[in-house]
Amino acid sequence: MALPEPEEKLRQKLFSDWQLSPEQPFFLACSGGVDSTALLHAAHALALRVEVLHVNHHWHPDSARWAEHVATLAAGYGYPCRLLDLPAEQKGEGPEDRARRGRYALFAGQLQEGDWILSAQHRDDQAETLVLQLLRGAGSDGLAAMPERRRLGAGTLGRPFLELTRAALRQYLRQQGIRWLEDPANSDLRYARARLRQRIWPLFHELGWPQASASIARSAANIADQLAVEDAWYAQQAMRCWLGGAVGRVLSVDFVKEWAPALQRVFLRRWLRDLGANVPDRQSLERLRQLFGPSQGGRRVELADLRAWRQGQRVQLWQNGPRHTIPAQEWRPHAPCGRGAGFRWCWGQATGPAPGLSEGAVIVGGTELQGRTLRWSKRRAGARYRNVSGHQRPLKKFLLELGIPPFLRDDVPILWTDTEEILWIPDFYLRKPALPEKEVLWVDLIRTTANS
């Protein structure tokens, strides 16, 4: 006997298309609405190992009752349910965007390497997403709408229902005799998606396009294919274009300038996305692209959340936001671990950061630093340093050689030894320690938010 369509689609995606093991455990995002309830019921029908995640947005008087409903529903299937509370303060362009970002941040926080979370977005959601992205003037990243699967935190987000319609999921639950919640926000015309559902899709039907959502979703899939081609091309080119410094943050002008303008824009969008920066509008992206033109040495471009600088045949990028704010101070790494103003340290093994430090921690030296006085300071006029050969050189010249732009040279923190050697300039330079050592000194920065 054939499986109902949602169950067959879920089985196909998990075990055929995505090649997952039947023993793979899943998190399943469930709001209690028709889509996620259908996914939950189909998961139980396939005997999947599931833990339900429900996010309480606290924006409706019945939010607590909805959370209770989902917990009861999960328990009826024999599944554990984890209730998550969305913090009141979220970044985003509007209430819908803030809620979406907050949900995914909460989900990402639950996932470890190898974990999967399933979400029930469907074909109509996909079509709505593409239309909304068009109205925002999005590029190919946005117009590809929602991918079937992507990284989320340390795990993977999967959307197995993107080829099914909302109507098919409703029919499935009705046939199974399963009740679901109706969120009033879905018909509240203050929200963009509700306006599309209540006003635009009926108009498409009235004007003779009953398959509008299917056609639009198909366009999103075609754009996603093109996006995959662009991503593959970018991956091939990126290693040729990256220069020294933090990986990916410095680009070679010689390579980029040879491409047609359209390819330059494709590459720069991918570059910004890889660095975690917001991709700017086309006009701002064009200003960035022009840095790779002739006679642009020394030019600086300021965008909303980043700035770029051309020096010779290299372009460097900095994001505004978390910055290193370390005041001048002396310290001695005599204890196993310690903390100063804006940083912390631990002695440990060279195989990985000591406990309590972030993945951004670095090794600044070994046992030769025990008992010595180290100091943080910023550049002073006329300062000199001792290089690895023991010779003194002007600090100004060293900072220039590292490619640190003039507008940052007075601001970067520098970690010195008591013999005027430079151990570390975060983001720009790290002295190579004489490894292996039985014990090494790890130093980690505590970043603070700044707009400069």
From TrEMBL:
Coiled coil: none annotated. One of its GO terms (biological process) is tRNA modification. It comes from the Bacteria. ATP binds at S31, G32, G33, V34, D35, S36. SMART domains: TilS_C. One of its GO terms (cellular component) is cytoplasm. The keyword Ligase applies. Keywords: ATP-binding, Cytoplasm, Ligase, Nucleotide-binding, tRNA processing. It holds the Pfam family ATP_bind_3. Residues 374-445 form the Lysidine-tRNA(Ile) synthetase C-terminal domain. It catalyses: cytidine(34) in tRNA(Ile2) + L-lysine + ATP = lysidine(34) in tRNA(Ile2) + AMP + diphosphate + H(+). InterPro entries: Lysidine-tRNA-synth_C, Rossmann-like_a/b/a_fold, TilS/TtcA_N, tRNA_Ile_lys_synt, tRNA_Ile_lys_synt_N, tRNA_Ile_lys_synt_subst-bd. GO terms for molecular function: ATP binding; tRNA(Ile)-lysidine synthase activity. It is found in: Cytoplasm. Its EC number is 6.3.4.19. The N-terminal region contains the highly conserved SGGXDS motif, predicted to be a P-loop motif involved in ATP binding. Ligates lysine onto the cytidine present at position 34 of the AUA codon-specific tRNA(Ile) that contains the anticodon CAU, in an ATP-dependent manner. Cytidine is converted to lysidine, thus changing the amino acid specificity of the tRNA from methionine to isoleucine. Belongs to the tRNA(Ile)-lysidine synthase family. This is tRNA(Ile)-lysidine synthase. It comes from Igneacidithiobacillus copahuensis.
